[in-house]
Amino acid sequence: MAPVASGSSRQTGVGHQPGVLLTFVLFCCVAILGRLAWLQLLHGAEFKAMADDNRIRLIPRDPVRGRLLDRQGRVLATNRLTYNLYLQPRLLKKGGWPALRDQLAELLTLRAADLETRRQQGARSESFRIRLAGPLTPVQVLRFRERAESLPGGEVAIEVHRAYPNGPLASHLMGYTSNITEEEYKRLEPKGYRLSDRIGRTGLEMVYEKHLRGEWGGQQLEVNAAGQVQRVLGDKPARAGKDLRLTIDLDLQLAAERALDTVGKGAIVAMDPQTGAVLAMASRPQFDPNIFSDGPTTAQWNQLNRPEAPMLNRTLQGFPPASTFKIVTTIAGLESGKFQAGSTLPTSASFCYDGQCYTDHAAYGSIGFPFALAVSSNSFYYRLGLALGPTELFKTARRLGYGSHTGVELREEESAGLLGDPTWKRKVLKEPWSSVDTITSSIGQGAVTVTPLQMARLYSAVANGGWLVTPHVVERPLPRVWLGLKPQTLQVLRQGLRQVVTEGTGKVLNDPSLPPVAGKTGTGEDPPRPDHVWFGGYAPADQPTLVIVAFGENSGGFGGTIAAPMVRALMTTWFRGASPSAAQGPT
């Protein structure tokens, strides 16, 4: 019986083996299918992208940045083409580099050691196109092209750099470009930027970056696991950026730049009072944006950061408006209803109030608004400001656009200025308002600052009959705000601003070769430094087509002797036909 039992046991063990194997096979199949599902269904798109990334390489082609043009199509910013020497390892025969290196060094008068260093550096990062030297001279480019067929693997290609043919002209308005940083690249890569890309940093280059930059192109190459090129998959041309036509008039801009040569620091804004189109915008000191194309040297960078702040656009910065602010006080008086067009106030060489005495340059007896503007009588406006009070004065200033941004494209660089009213003084200085504050504010001193662009906007409103325009340097649909000024207010202002030129502080502009000019001078104290000077005005006085504001920062002198001649220089350029459309005014 024992043998039988033993045989039965062996048969049972053999019978279980097929079941175990089947189970094992089924388990493996399920595992394989699960893994395939995980790879294909859940992560298929991800791994396909990784495979393509490993399989496909792109040789980039730079986009050409759009140009900046003046209102007549004349070039203000363009692009400079440079030629660089590259190595394409995919076209180089095995072991052929030393011979090619020596040939290139001899042909182009380059150091072989420098070429070797560049190749080794490039091979560690990107082996499909390595920059060996540049920029090349025209002679070097010609020599290479004559021998190009015998230099397989070598390539001379074009790179694009930003160029400003007029150097520092309108540099603050146009701005400059520079290479993006690694931190910016992480943020901008999804938008098509490359690590070697450039971006607008200031001015219009920054504001219209998307419009100007264009789109990278390139050649797509398929490579194997060893990195060897198998075939060309596609060739995508780079898309050039769009040109941008500005409202700036090159002739007038040149005149503004020359006029500012008379002051170390200052600003000029010229504007069409009907539309708000900016015809010239100049700031001193200036800088040459071309130095950023190849990167500023240490000496250049130190110059850009000197105390005079050449990178600061002074047309958009706030300064004490001095007597140019008297038109705000005039409007406040006439619009308040407390004064009429024919109202008069006494003037005196000395004015005392609340134990404080204030001087004036002359006494004229009792005078009206037009003559007070013409001779810039401080004592007239001291009394007017006290009669109105700070609430009415600052309410009018805000109504006229002071204390707020103008709407110009350069918003990030623009100051809103300062209207230091009683609320501001309590909050910031922790002090109560006093009569001294009212008196000084009424003549544009104290805690009041405005930008040259804000002032040009205000004088435009007087010139165009009461419309607050939106300054702009690129034509686009923009609103005008009706101020609702009384007709008699505008009449008094126009009469007074014209008298400034005919018999007051701005006689230098009473030039028979020019159309009738109207405007206001200003001289602002800035102790212990020299005074600031202003002139804001427009012409022709009866049908204005041009507003100009000129400002000298700590220039010393007076508005009528320093700023007004700058305005005359621009008006001479505009109205004597240096600009083809000057006779008709800006379009």
Compact summary:
The protein is an alpha+beta fold.
Task: Summarize the structure in words.
By secondary structure, the protein is of the alpha+beta class. The chain is built from 20 helices and 23 strands. The protein has two domains: 58-245, Penicillin-binding protein 2a (Domain 2) (Alpha-Beta Complex), CATH 3.90.1310; 250-286 and 311-582, 3-Layer(aba) Sandwich (Beta-lactamase). Strands 2, 3, 4, 5 and 10 form a five-stranded mixed β-sheet that branches. It has a five-stranded antiparallel β-sheet with strand order 12-11-23-22-21, sandwiched between helices. A three-stranded antiparallel β-sheet has the order 1-8-9. The longest helix has 41 residues, at 2-42. The relative contact order is 0.10. Mean pLDDT is 89; it is low at 1-14, 49-53 and 578-587.
Q: Mind sketching the topology for me?
A:
Layout lengths: L1 H41 L1 H12 E6 L6 E2 L5 E13 L9 H12 L3 H12 L6 E4 L4 H10 L6 E10 L7 H4 L2 E3 L2 H7 L9 E3 L2 H5 L1 H5 L3 E7 L5 E8 L7 E2 L4 H10 L6 E6 L6 E7 L13 H7 L21 H11 L7 E3 L3 E4 L2 E4 L6 E3 H7 L2 H11 L1 H10 L18 E2 L2 H8 L5 H8 L5 E2 L2 H12 L3 E2 L12 E2 L4 H17 L14 E9 L2 E11 L6 E7 L6 H17 L12
Parallel strand pairs: 2-10
Antiparallel strand pairs: 1-8, 2-3, 3-4, 3-5, 6-7, 8-9, 11-12, 11-23, 13-16, 14-15, 17-18, 19-20, 21-22, 22-23
